[in-house]
Design brief:
366 residues; 65% helix; mainly alpha
């Protein structure tokens, strides 16, 4: 009886979240369109890609004349974001073996003023350029995070500090507190957003959760607040099964904040298997985020609400899960997703959904 009540509560929670995300007739919601989610291949790091377009700001004449021994400005000038990312990643892998080269990248982080070059440096630090670096590199990155003049400069230092301490205070006593202080005090939303993006990619340390809560209230609507909401979801979901985010969604008066919280809930429930891109154009985001968030919620039901994988259930225990997916289908305005949810319910009852692969295939992630 207790198990059935627990499953009933989980179903009720999921349906409430779904209805909040898919209310029909609300003037805040755009018309649904077929979703498109990027699935992260198995074995790859779930590190969000760099922005789709290079920053529009052109390098100053002085920057062009300065020597560029690492080729950073050459990489920044590549039109394709994917090619820029690959080149920056390969360069970081090559330079990581040479402490002098890592120090040269840090020097460039301190001196460069072009946003495109700083973005390349940030990508290199995402590629674990500073992992295993010594105290000189750590101290330099801490100084940039605390005193850097440009938000892009401070944000680029974030990933370097994370890889030095790997998000754990016991590995380095200064890095995590500095990151938490930046979430609370940095005047630029971009810095809090960069830290939120990083923590959502892995797992926020416990001491960061309260700072993320404060930032969620303080930051304006936009991709940086969305990243903070996703990090908060990752930091609280294992403790309360999403209860805090659902409560905040119910209390939020701002439609955009409800969307951010729904994204945070989906991010946590889907165990980082998919991510809404932070660099989408606003029109693209408005056109597609609602069906995508709901599809990610559907994919996250088994892990997000503590259900066992369907294939291991006895036949009577499959009924609540199938009923949940049918309830979600009844509330879903997008025809394609509605049909997929009904297929999931039917396959659960038939014992055909045994794990992630079958569920993702039916929901259209692959």
């Amino acid at each position: 009886m207790t198990r059935l009540l627990a499953l009933g509560l989980a179903c009720s929670l999921a349906l409430n979240v779904w209805l909040l995300a898919s209310r029909r007739g609300s003037p805040d919601l755009p018309p649904p369109v077929p979703p498109a989610v990027r699935e992260v291949p198995s074995g790859e790091s779930d590190v969000p890609p760099v922005p789709e377009e290079a920053p529009s700001r052109d390098p100053s004449p002085e920057a062009v004349r300065r020597p560029d021994p690492l080729g950073l400005r050459e990489i920044a000038s590549i039109p394709s974001s994917e090619e820029r990312r690959k080149r920056a990643w390969r360069l970081a892998e090559d330079l990581a073996r040479d402490p002098a080269a890592v120090a040269a990248v840090l020097a460039a982080l301190r001196s460069e003023t072009d946003a495109a070059v700083l973005a390349v440096i940030g990508t290199m630090f995402r590629a674990a350029l500073a992992r295993g670096a010594g105290p000189e590199i750590r101290d330099g990155l801490l100084d940039v995070l605390r005193h850097g003049d440009l938000p892009e400069r401070r944000a680029a230092a974030v990933w370097g500090l994370w890889w030095i301490c790997e998000g754990r205070s016991d590995r380095d006593p200064e890095c995590v507190p500095a990151l938490v202080d930046a979430v609370r005090a940095d005047p630029s939303p971009a810095v809090a957003g960069a830290i939120g993006e990083m923590m959502a990619t892995f797992l926020p340390p416990p001491e960061a959760v309260e700072a993320l809560r404060e930032a969620l209230v303080r930051l304006p609507a936009g991709p940086d607040r969305r990243a903070v909401a996703e990090a908060l979801g990752r930091g609280t979901f294992l403790l309360d099964g999403g209860a805090e985010l659902v409560r905040r969604m119910e209390e939020a008066g701002e439609s955009a904040l409800k969307d951010d919280l729904a994204a945070g809930l989906a991010r946590a429930a889907s165990s980082m298997s998919a991510i809404v891109r932070r660099d989408e154009a606003p029109a693209d985001r408005e056109a597609r985020e609602h069906p995508e968030i709901r599809r990610k919620l559907a994919r996250g039901v088994p892990s997000g609400f503590g259900f066992s994988w369907f294939g291991s259930w006895r036949a009577p225990a499959r009924a609540p899960a199938a009923e949940l997916y049918r309830d979600l289908a009844a509330a879903e305005p997008d025809a394609d997703l509605r049909d997929r949810l009904l297929r999931v319910a039917a396959e659960i009852e038939a014992g055909g959904v045994r794990g992630t692969d079958e569920l993702c295939e039916i929901l259209g992630f692959r």
